[in-house]
Amino acid sequence: MWILLALACTNEAPERPTWYADVAPLVDTHCARCHAAGGVGGVDLTDPEGAVALAGAMVTAVESGRMPPPASDPACQDYVGSDGLVLSDEERATLVAWEQGGAPLGDPASEVEVAVPSAVLSEPDLELRLSAPYAPAYVDPENAANEYRCFVLDPGQAEDFYVTAMAPIVDEVAMVHHVVLFKAVRNLLPAAALDPSGYDCINGSEVENVGMLAAWAPGMLPVELPAGVGMFVGSDEVFVLQMHYYDNGRVEGLSDQSGYAMRITDTAEHAAQMAPLGISDFVIPAGEPAHEDGDSFENSYLDLTVYGLFPHMHLLGQRFSASIVHEDGSETCLVEGAYDFANQMTYQYLSPIDFDVGDRLVYSCTWNNSESNADLFYSPPQDVRYGERTDEEMCFMFTLVAPS
Fold this sequence. Notes:
The chain is mainly β. The chain has helices at 2-10, 19-30, 48-53, 55-63, 82-85, 89-100, and strands at 126-129, 146-153, 161-169, 176-185, 199-200, 212-216, 223-224, 229-233, 237-246, 259-265, 270-271, 273-278, 283-284, 291-298, 304-312, 317-325, 331-338, 347-355, 360-367, 384-385, 396-403. Helix 2 crosses helix 6 (89-100) and helix 4 packs antiparallel against helix 6 (89-100). The radius of gyration is 23 Å and the shape is globular.
């Protein structure tokens, strides 16, 4: 009996989690890149008082699996920032215990500072923006609520260089659906391309594409290539920025002056490029909750190294997968996971992956075109085909590769 009493005296009740000591670090790590002041998430969870008021909603979002937004499973292939995109069971339990304990703030002195993932590229060497604000007109009757506008950005470099890191400077987040950056030869530009207000490019650019550098969609973090790797840009080349603007009913009167930030260097051991793989001959039947399609690409040219991969779909996208089937029959997983249009990533691998001659890259996309999809564009559902508009769909795997 005395032993039981002694044990009872030494078993103190565990301390309740508090905002400053336990929850704020979780929010900074997993939520702040979208849910900070002015972020794309629309709700600031970094403010203590606001977070306390939203504690119940935070737990509901986490327990339903809606937050953090879906991302590729690091168990498939680990990547930069995976610890901030996937919430552990222990972290989930901490958040629930905090909310059930009354969401106490605790002592501000107990807060542990963590690095907050940022969509902004730090210490860029170049920052290129549209020369003047542009207000989309959305006047194309065949592409209602969508506008594709291309702008020429001149890097102004007298010598060849390599881009080693890059991220868009997204001005008006509310209406930017995606951004694509590619290269063109300066002396081959048509006069229309030099207009400061840009030019319409819904059906492809008037400027010849001589190399894709980047594609961005909401949620993406900066792309930072490993040491010794860069994307070549000739002194005779300029950048063409394709902006896809989308009218979601909340953009009246807005103008945009986006651009791109980059780090550059004079030399690089490996010249990388963004290589798109995708399909365009699919139909997603109306009412189909899990329609899957995909393709494969056999490497028959030269040995390559894969540094990262960006899966891209639109609002119906639900899951993606890609892997390399090697010539010897073994398989290397590249990406595998649930998809969220508002949380797209270029998954940058911790270790480069070999993609040699004779290997095959196999990929697939899964879409939900049924009423169970809260992001359904048409209700009732309609058959959906390939296209760049928001009400159409895509299945692309943009791969960052370089010759081995």
